[in-house]
Amino acid sequence: MKLTYPMKITPIAADVPRSHRVYFEVFGCQMNKLDAELMLEGLTNRGYHLVHDPEDAGVILYNTCSVREHAEERAVMRMTSFKRRKKREPDLILGLTGCVAQHKQDELTERAPWIDLIIGTREFDRLPELIEEARGQRNTVLATEMDSPLEFVRQRNLGPQPWHAFVSVMRGCDMVCTYCIVPTTRGKEVSRPPEMILDEVRRLADTGVKEITFLGQTVNSYGKRLGAGIGLDTLLRGVEEIDGIERCHFITSHPRFLRPKLIQAMAECTKVMDYLHLPVQSGSDSMLARMKRTYDRSFYLHVIDRLRDQIPDITLATDFIVGFPGETEDEFEESLSLIDEVGFDHGYVFQYSPRPGTVSDHQMDDDIPLEVKKQRNHRLLERISTSGEGRNQRFLGRQVEVIAEGTSRSNDSRWAGKARDHRTVIWDAQDDEVAGSFVVVEVDRASAATLYGQRVAGPSPRPILPNSSAL
Ligand code: SAH
Ligand code: SF4
Ligand code: F3S
């Protein structure tokens, strides 16, 4: 999980008043990043500008995450570091938005009454008017209703890359995983109507977006309560018809809802990327039951079989939690063996962190020592890396299509980009590289997470290889 999100900062005129200079830091998941972009769009429509340095800002905002304790504490500590300045500079507006603001509103108003704004996850569309409301009053302005409709017409993509945009398809989560704070911070699952989503994608395509990532906490249960026949497959098929969008994918899927109709749409739609993030959390049935994940190991394996029947080459990523209450060595080893059995390409590992307000925190002992959590974390990551390295060898000698992103972080005579399965690809730069263009790279080396090679075609504004056989 990234700590900050490099939203684009355009140079601003010297006469923009301090009151309209905003410093905005973003914690947490992709949903939080997108929400920050949407807030920023609302702010820029009202004459606000983003600045790099909090010292230059008259408005300081943190979009916060509650998923693990350190994320939550870090955001509150950063806010506290402005307390002194707020005393000197009473016009300074300090605001917490997002999951911590939603979840800890009462505690925050007690502990940090000098914070001007506390805005939850369903009312941030009102941010500009709430800032105005907070000016000149001493009380904290709270906006934490959970049943607010939260709907505004998005016109622009303010993400860091002009060719890629996140699009929210649903908000909230109806699941009850015992360790998870998200249903508390984000509320019940609500899907947006498909026409509204596809209109947004069309507008984004008109601004030069080529790749869309649909976002939802259980994105593949999209459509619940919208009426018969509407699902994530409806959106994938809708995107097929939108000129300018060349790639699309979706995060995060829940194993329970990976239904045949969706798998079929993934297989048939040429724009759908060859990548699926399907968090499993554990390979042990007893752990999965205690986590209330609603499936067991054999169900997960069955879903993967069904998926690979239709899309044999699909790249698979997952999440694991280690050190969940009561996790024995044997149970942990079932997570290790699941990696071998599935053959994951990537994976994220999280050390269990009890969240106040969750079932596991109330009813279970956080009894796995930190040292054991760390060791298990390390062992799982090693196994995933071995699996990823093995899987990556299948690309040797192949030509893969890549959206070029920019110079490689470690070596500026190379360029880096993303393949159709979200893999990072690095190649020796030529003179005419263009960020956001399509290139074809012939792979001659593969590490656990990255492919290396030489550019053999491109740059081109449109895809070069036929989509369905690109990887
Ligand atoms: N909605 C997504 C993920 C939400 S949170 C899903 O259901 O898959 C992202 C990841 O954080 C989860 O997949 C889980 O692995 C991890 N996570 C969530 N709560 C956690 C906790 N209390 N401690 C440690 N990891 C946690
Ligand atoms: Fe949390 Fe489970 Fe919902 Fe994912 S599905 S957001 S882990 S409750
Ligand atoms: Fe964190 Fe909220 Fe996302 S808790 S992971 S920012 S949904």
Protein described:
The chain is an alpha/beta fold. The chain has three domains: 18-143, 3-Layer(aba) Sandwich (Rossmann fold), CATH 3.40.50.12160; 164-393, Alpha-Beta Horseshoe (pyruvate-formate lyase- activating enzyme), CATH 3.80.30; 396-470, Beta Barrel (OB fold (Dihydrolipoamide Acetyltransferase, E2P)), CATH 2.40.50.140. It has 15 helices and 19 strands. The strands form five sheets. Strands 2-1-3-4-5-6 form a six-stranded parallel β-sheet, with helices on both faces. Strand 5 (117-119), helix 6 and strand 6 form a beta-alpha-beta unit. Helix 8 (194-206) packs parallel to helix 9.
How far is it from the N-terminal to the C-terminal residue, by CA? 27 Å
Beta strand count: 19
Give the strand line-up of the largest sheet: 2-1-3-4-5-6
Low-confidence segments, given as residue ranges, are none
Mean pLDDT across residues: 92
CATH architectural type of the largest domain: Alpha-Beta Horseshoe
Tally of individual domains: 3
Strand content: 15-25%
CATH class of the largest domain: Alpha Beta
**What's the multimeric state?**
single chain
Hetero groups bound? S-adenosyl-L-homocysteine, iron/sulfur cluster, FE3-S4 cluster
Rg over CA atoms, rounded to whole Å, is: 23 Å
- CA-based shape: globular
